[in-house]
Design brief:
The complex is a heterodimer of chains A (about 425) and B (about 325). Chain A has about 425 residues and is of the alpha/beta class. Chain A is built from 13 helices and twelve strands. Mean pLDDT of chain A is about 90; it is low at about 10-25. Chain B has one domain. Chain B is globular, with a radius of gyration of 20 Å. Classes of the chains: A alpha/beta (about 425), B mainly alpha (about 325).
């Protein structure tokens, strides 16, 4: 037994030594993302986006006009201190998320945390940061009650399901005003946490807006046949169909609808599958006019978003996507708050986050601003609606940020 | 030889006092949860040799019932623990009766199927939080909610439960029950022909194992405060129990504890050292461990020690004493 205990001691000693020393003149922020497991791609992309964000803050980027901290190098009110990112992998597991959060806080002494992509990990991890009194900014997890549990240290910049729902209904309201027929909708959602929670919010928001939901059709995203669901839609004949789908199922729906010759006036896809890089190559030609949400738009050459996208593309070879963009925005909001706090004391950072009031011109994402309510939710979070025209999505709503004219009804596969 | 378990017990008792960092104490608590569930699995999977890959069902039930009671009636989490154990016993009975008619791999496959079925049902049951999961009290309303900032109280509660499981296993090991189970593992038909009531004792072992696994699930929810179908009923939950028990030594009293002491810190360490870089290394370790154990030493580390290393050391010591 003494050999075993000895081995234990050595293992633990090695762990203790692994904790890096604390350097002066830097501000350490913990990132909690899935870097292995089935969401690893999204997690890595988010971390890369945040690394670009750290470059923007740590180095002088006067070309990005209006973005806080871009023009200067480091955090001016902390004597030009640089931000250091401390990345941890939670593997999409709530329990690992908790222990990594604990490690980042107690061992690595991070002053604030960002994360966590999956909502279930965000639930569990924020409970730890709450007990330790360290600010946790949620950039991309959308489950409704991550905020609103009475937590004082949780802030969330991203729009959540109810915001998307409200935006969709506002859009449909605008359509009705313009004399288009958008009185009834059907919701088709995949049946895990993402699809179910978004569908619930959509139903609530539709009720508020006085739009009739004629059908809600949950399905399994791994299905290889969705004929029954499409026939059900065909029978109910709603004006607009909203899909909450992952990639392969979104593609399958488009193909099946063409085969069964069923097309509603409009299809709205809720991000995810419809934003996946493989969606347009696979079914672009038969899904003309499909709408999607995105708070991210690359914008015109010369704009801030265009330049930020170029930085991201230089680093990764890809265009920045909506999900990673929302994480990067959360980082920029947090960095701005730490700078305004002029201190790395968690209490001061929290107070600065509370006082955050950013205008749309200071943001890279299409929010109406960033301002947190009592629960920590950004009340100005919003999203654009984009429409597939030709080979890309173009912003079409709200009209002030539109770059293309809305096509209604959608064309689909018809010329 | 008799002092070794006591030394281990003493080491476990003082661990949180020696390692005062919150992260190490938390890791200690995680080791104990994993050791408890792996030790519970060990009763049926190790001693009786019935490799269940569906123990997540019991772990999940133990985790869900307390939080469901909280969700419905705002009861403190520990109130629901007996209910979780009772439900697990019922499940074990219902699952065990038909599946124990199957042998070997067919039994394992049937248990996987049952666990996946339960996971899907829970994912689609609104009152169980569906695919999103359920949350315990976010902030403590009093001590009875067992929400502590430090992991030390959890550590000692978990240690007590683990002690109970190991004590029960130890008692079982030396009783007629234990001999029956080992006879069943060695050769089920021979055991039957010698008059061992095979079906009945397999079912008893399964139910005992289920009850303790549910207790481990309850410990998990009390500490984590959040459960979703994947972390309660996911197949990795079952696989983790098996790997830990097999690494240390399935069918031995302290094997699962040893496995947890090695594997959980290793898992955490790979996360810490390679946080940004070599991702997924944990899974590679898991795969490697399974292959090495299966190929070279199906008895796990304890057997490796007993059969290979200890004789080697003894021989060397003998050589040294030789003139």
């Amino acid at each position: 037994m003494e050999k075993k205990s000895c081995f234990l001691c050595v293992t633990l000693l090695a762990l203790a030594l692994a904790a890096p020393a604390h350097a002066a003149k830097t501000v350490k922020i913990g990132l909690l993302y899935p870097l292995s497991g089935n969401a690893a791609a999204a997690g890595k992309s988010a971390v890369q986006a945040i690394e670009v964000g750290a470059d923007i803050v740590n180095n002088a980027h006067p070309e990005l006009k209006g973005i806080p901290l871009a023009a200067t190098a480091g955090l001016p009110r902390l004597g030009g201190a640089k931000i250091v990112l401390d990345v941890a992998d939670h593997q999409g597991n709530p329990s690992i998320g908790q222990s990594q959060t604990l490690r980042l806080i107690t061992q690595d002494k991070v002053v604030a945390l960002l994360g966590a992509y999956q909502s279930n990990v965000a639930f569990a991890a924020t409970a730890v940061s709450e007990r330790y009194g360290i600010p946790f900014v949620v950039g991309d997890s959308v489950a409704a009650n991550i905020t609103g549990r009475g937590f004082k240290w949780v802030f969330r910049t991203t729009p959540i399901a109810s915001d998307f729902g409200r935006n969709y209904m506002e859009f449909l309201g605008d359509m009705k005003k313009a004399g288009r027929k958008a009185d009834t909708i059907a919701i088709v959602n995949e049946n895990t946490d993402y699809g179910t929670s978004v569908a619930q919010s959509l139903i609530e928001q539709a009720k508020k807006a006085g739009i009739k939901v004629v059908a809600q059709i949950p399905y399994n995203a791994n299905s290889t046949d969705v004929t029954a669901q499409v026939l059900q839609l065909k029978a109910k004949n709603p004006d607009v169909v909203i899909f909450v789908s992952y990639t392969s199922d979104a593609i399958l729906y488009m193909k099946t609808m063409k085969n069964l010759d069923y097309m509603p006036s409009m299809i709205i896809g809720d991000d995810s599958g419809f934003s996946d890089p493989s969606f347009i190559p696979a079914v672009g030609p038969i899904a003309q006019g499909v709408m999607n949400r995105s708070a991210w738009a690359i914008g015109k050459p010369g704009s801030n978003t265009y330049k930020i996208n170029a930085m991201f593309k230089k680093k990764t070879g890809r265009d920045l996507d909506d999900t990673s963009g929302r994480s990067m925005e959360a980082f920029l909001v947090l960095a701005d708050a730490i700078n305004r706090a002029g201190s790395t004391a968690p209490k001061k950072i929290r107070a600065a986050l509370r006082a955050t009031d950013l205008k749309p011109s200071q943001l890279m994402m299409g929010y109406h601003g960033v301002k947190f309510d009592k629960t920590g939710q950004n009340i100005l979070a919003a999203t654009y609606l984009v429409q597939l025209q030709g080979k890309e999505y173009k912003a079409v709503w709200p009209s002030k940020s539109a770059v293309a004219k809305l096509e209604w009804p959608m064309k689909g596969w018809k010329k | 030889m008799r002092w070794r378990p006591f030394a281990l017990a003493a080491a476990l008792l003082v661990y949180p006092l020696l390692f005062r960092g919150a992260f190490y104490q938390d890791m200690g608590a995680l080791v104990l949860i994993q050791a408890t569930s792996a030790s519970a699995w060990n009763i049926v999977g190790g001693y009786a040799g019935q490799v269940s890959v569906g123990h997540a069902v019991f772990f999940g039930a133990g985790a869900y019932l307390p939080v469901l009671f909280y969700e419905l009636w705002q009861l403190p989490l520990f109130v629901g623990v007996p209910a979780g154990i009772a439900v697990s016993l019922a499940f074990a009975f219902i699952i065990g009766l038909p599946t124990f008619r199957l042998r070997g791999h067919y039994f394992s496959m049937a248990t996987i199927a049952v666990a996946e079925l339960v996971r899907l049902i829970v994912s689609n049951s609104g009152f169980l939080g569906g695919a999103i999961g359920l949350m315990g009290p976010a902030r403590p309303r009093g001590w009875w909610d067992l929400v502590f900032r430090s992991a030390v109280p959890y550590y000692y509660i978990f240690l007590a439960v683990l002690g109970l499981v190991l004590l029960a296993t130890w008692q079982m090991e030396r009783s007629r029950f234990g001999y029956y189970l080992r006879a069943i593992r060695a050769d089920e038909r021979a055991a039957k022909s010698l008059g061992v009531p095979v079906s009945r004792y397999k079912l008893y072992a399964f139910m005992l194992s289920a009850a303790f696994t549910a207790a481990a699930g309850s410990l998990y929810i009390i500490k984590t405060g959040f459960i979703d179908p994947e972390s309660g009923f996911g197949i990795l939950v079952s696989v983790q129990m098996i790997i830990i028990a097999a690494l240390g030594g399935a069918g031995t009293l302290l094997g699962p504890l040893l496995g947890a002491i090695l594997l959980v810190p290793l898992q955490t360490a790979t996360n810490t050292w390679f946080g940004g870089g070599a991702t997924g290394l944990t899974y590679i370790f898991y795969g490697g461990i399974i292959m090495l154990i299966a190929r070279f030493e199906p008895g796990g580390l304890i057997e490796l020690w007993r059969l290979r290393i200890a004789p080697l050391l003894l021989r060397r010591r003998g050589d040294a004493h030789a003139p």
